[in-house]
Design a protein that fits this description.
The termini are far apart. The protein has 229 residues and is α+β, with helices and mostly antiparallel strands. The chain contains seven helices and five strands, in the order αααααααβββββ.
């Protein structure tokens, strides 16, 4: 036996290798999915941080009046929207309006791209059953005609909360998106039948997301869409 040999070192190294393998088996990417955006990451964008992370320590601060600027840039004080947000926070104290808007922007982009490419798996994760069936029906009709949609997402110029509704533990939030897209539909022969492959267009969409606040599923799902003209 060599000087300095310690059996505990060997045991430690074997344990570290086992733990590393377990972490990879749980968190590692699936074969063939490395280049695809993670749906779970998109969904997490619209989940309040306090639901994703460990529960915060109980606050020892005394109750105080709400900050009058709490909805600054989101809703004017005293408006129905501000009052509805207050009611939502009273029911779900983990709700963060600014984080929700940021997540809704990510979900909007993911859904637009998934619909154009016919990515049913992504849509299934982010849409309610009724909206999913509607989207998939449109995709199937498009595929039967041999049509393809080319969409380049230029960006979202604005995403504003439009309406908040709370009924018991069921919450619905409507967001108005102003975005820029390049989109073109081609027929089976490759000819453009709608849109343009080299033109940026302004798009206004009004989408409603919903979630049962007492549900174990933390994801807000798209339940309704409306194009504004």
């Amino acid at each position: 036996m060599q000087d300095g040999f310690d059996l505990s070192i060997i045991v430690f190294l074997l344990l570290a290798a086992f733990v590393g393998w377990r972490l990879y088996s749980i968190l590692g990417t699936r074969p063939g999915r490395e280049d695809q955006a993670s749906v779970s990451n998109v969904a997490k964008l619209i989940v309040p941080a306090t639901q994703r992370d460990a529960a915060p320590e109980p606050s020892v601060e005394t109750a105080s009046e709400p900050d009058p600027a709490r909805w600054k840039g989101i809703a004017e004080p005293g408006t129905p929207l501000a009052n509805s947000l207050d009611a939502l926070v009273a029911t779900d104290q983990s709700f963060d309006a600014r984080q929700f808007i940021a997540g809704a922007r990510g979900a909007y982009e993911a859904i637009v791209i998934a619909f154009a490419s016919g990515d049913r798996n992504t849509l299934r994760e982010l849409l309610s059953r009724d909206v999913f069936e509607s989207f998939v029906g449109a995709i199937a009709d498009r595929e039967k005609r041999g049509e393809t949609v080319e969409t380049t997402f230029v960006g979202i110029e604005k995403a504003d909360l439009h309406h908040v509704q709370l009924r018991g533990n069921a919450a619905q939030i409507t967001v108005r998106f102003l975005s820029k897209l390049i989109t073109a539909t081609r027929d089976a022969a490759g000819a453009i039948t709608d849109g343009a492959a080299d033109k940026v267009v302004d798009v206004t969409d009004i989408w409603t997301f919903a979630r049962e606040l007492n549900s174990r599923d933390p994801v807000w799902k798209l339940i309704a869409t409306e194009a504004a003209y």
